[in-house]
């Protein structure tokens, strides 16, 4: 069993804490996932990606791992895991695990030993620097706010490096023992039947010389210094060693790399099969916000902004074209690090259904691997979290206090944050009408005001978003939508129109991106083409001019 070619994969991302709670403690778990495998099969996916499930103090919801060889007890047991893999494989679904390679938890025995004992073998598993004249080693800033340096509690003059939370110290990949340990961990999980890994934040495993400050251009405080800790050439050296070793162990291991800030040139490097690195990478560059819409009276972090459609188009085209003949990009609309896109794109509730369908049509019929984030297939949106603590984020808290000072009501500030913050896209899957949406018998670990859509309703309605997703994912399995050439038509930013072509068959995909009716002149005759997917009201006049209702979309093909 299993998928033969990586480009045939249709991935579904499950945030395990929020998918289905089987034992009623308010936190999703593996038995919950097992109980929903038939649902996933029915949707038409063939690969399941689970966000981290290892032992963790949960400072960053599992991305802070304190034991890579055991499951967080809230998730279940290793036996549950084995059952999950076995049942998934029976249904033709492969399982890939999120693997955190850049850092561990500060509660990991390696780090605890490194702190407790200056002569520890594990000291060199992490990154240490002396301070400079009573100050931090440099001005580099962490992604989670503040400096990347934290004082060694045992040694006033030493600091350890953390790119994310200070309770998540970075591993030192220069140390061959670290590299060997990570390979051993991966092999352990391959032995438990996993088919691949999503490599978390791998682009950061090499760092530049710490002597250099990040030019601050007069800005005070620590500065995020991507040029010194992202995508350095040594990343590829370490990654190659890691992946080469694992592919010798399991030849068809699937590697999906998280390369958040990678541009297309780096994507070419990271996915060129000759280099034996990742099969595919996820960039965050598809979705840029329109910074011109920022309110200068409030901090930038925390403000919901519309998408830059022009940048989106340019980025998509370059990822579609440059990877042709090399690899396949990952196609996604949402993930656990982004606010849910539907909330951003369609403001008017009357348009939500059409917009959700249009977005799936636009994204997943392009060239690449579809990766659906749990709940988007039923139209879930950013939930409104009603307490600032629910965001678990110092930058969110800072925004909140500034916003209140600037005169915003609490509810307004929380709504803005919910529409722009990753945490609001991690709320429980909405299964049915029961209390807590059938996710759990008790109040879920994260809970907000949701938009009320649910799987049961969607299953019952033939015209639902869910049933439309099934159709899109079914089409996606056709060679035309896997291997076909991609051409984006030059249109106004209200429209997204492209063709896929393979041998004699062509598909035309026409999407209205806006909340207005838009006209589009269809090229050539339509008599030899048939509609395979229709979403929303459309009409065609005698001159082949299509009138597309807000957020409608259409796919037609010649065969
Ligand atoms: C990745 C994850 C994110 C996490 C970070 C640190 O970017 O997707 O959720 O916070 O890595 O592990
Ligand atoms: Ca549970």
TrEMBL record:
It comes from Ligilactobacillus ruminis. Residues 13-421 form the Glycosyl hydrolase family 13 catalytic domain. InterPro entries: GH, GH13_cat_dom, Glyco_hydro_b, O16G_dom_2. This is Alpha-glucosidase. It holds the Pfam family Alpha-amylase. It comes from the Bacteria. Belongs to the glycosyl hydrolase 13 family. Gene3D superfamilies: Glycosidases, Golgi alpha-mannosidase II, Oligo-1,6-glucosidase, Domain 2. Keywords: Glycosidase, Hydrolase.
């Amino acid at each position: 069993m299993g998928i033969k070619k990586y480009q045939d994969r249709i991935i579904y991302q499950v945030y395990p804490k929020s998918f289905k709670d089987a034992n009623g403690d308010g936190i999703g778990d593996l038995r919950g996932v097992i109980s929903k495998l038939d649902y996933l099969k029915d949707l038409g996916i063939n690969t399941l990606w689970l966000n981290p499930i290892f032992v963790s103090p949960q400072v960053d919801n599992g991305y802070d791992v304190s034991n890579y060889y055991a499951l967080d007890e809230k998730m279940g047991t290793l036996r549950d895991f084995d059952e999950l893999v076995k049942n998934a494989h029976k249904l033709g679904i492969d399982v890939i695990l999120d693997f955190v390679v850049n850092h561990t938890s500060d509660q990991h025995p390696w780090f605890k030993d490194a702190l407790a004992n200056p002569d520890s073998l594990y000291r060199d598993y992490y990154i240490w620097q002396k301070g400079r004249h009573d100050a931090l080693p440099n001005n580099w800033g962490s992604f989670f706010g503040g400096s990347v340096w934290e004082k060694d509690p045992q040694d006033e003059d030493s600091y350890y490096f953390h790119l994310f939370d200070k309770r998540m110290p970075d591993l030192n990949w220069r140390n061959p023992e670290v590299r060997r340990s990570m390979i051993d961990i991966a092999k352990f999980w391959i032995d438990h039947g996993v088919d691949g890994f999503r490599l978390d934040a791998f682009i950061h495993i090499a760092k530049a010389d710490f002597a250099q400050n990040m030019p601050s251009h007069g800005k005070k405080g620590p500065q995020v210094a991507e040029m010194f800790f992202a995508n350095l050439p040594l990343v590829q050296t370490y990654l190659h060693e890691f992946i080469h070793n694992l592919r010798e162990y399991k030849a068809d291991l699937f590697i999906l790399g998280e390369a958040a800030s990678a541009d297309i040139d780096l994507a070419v490097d990271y996915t060129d099969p000759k280099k034996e690195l990742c099969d595919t990478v996820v960039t965050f560059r598809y979705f840029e916000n329109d910074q011109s819409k920022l309110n200068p009276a409030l901090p930038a972090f925390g403000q919901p902004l519309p998408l830059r459609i022009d940048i989106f188009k340019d980025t998509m085209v370059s990822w579609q074209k440059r990877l042709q003949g090399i690899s396949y990009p990952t196609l996604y609309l949402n993930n656990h690090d982004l606010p849910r896109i539907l909330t951003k794109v369609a403001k008017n509730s009357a348009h939500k259904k059409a917009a959700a369908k249009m977005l799936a049509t636009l994204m997943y019929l392009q060239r690449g691997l579809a990766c659906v984030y749990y709940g988007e297939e039923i139209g879930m949106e950013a939930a409104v979290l009603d307490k600032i603590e629910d965001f678990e984020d110092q930058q969110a808290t800072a925004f909140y206090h500034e916003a209140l000072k600037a005169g915003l009501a609490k509810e307004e500030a929380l709504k803005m944050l919910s529409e722009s913050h990753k945490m609001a896209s991690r709320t429980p899957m909405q299964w049915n009408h029961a209390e807590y949406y059938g996710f759990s018998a008790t109040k879920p670990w994260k809970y907000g005001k949701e938009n009320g859509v649910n799987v049961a309703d969607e299953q019952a309605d033939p015209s639902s978003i869910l049933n439309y997703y099934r159709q899109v994912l079914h089409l996606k399995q056709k060679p035309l939508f896997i291997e076909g050439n991609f051409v984006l038509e030059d249109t106004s930013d209200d429209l997204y129109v492209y063709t896929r072509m393979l041998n004699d068959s062509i598909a035309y995909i026409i999407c209205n991106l806006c909340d207005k009716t838009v006209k589009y002149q269809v090229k050539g005759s339509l008599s030899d083409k048939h509609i395979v997917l229709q979403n929303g009201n459309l009409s065609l006049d005698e001159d082949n001019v299509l009138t597309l209702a807000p957020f409608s979309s259409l796919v037609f093909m010649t065969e």
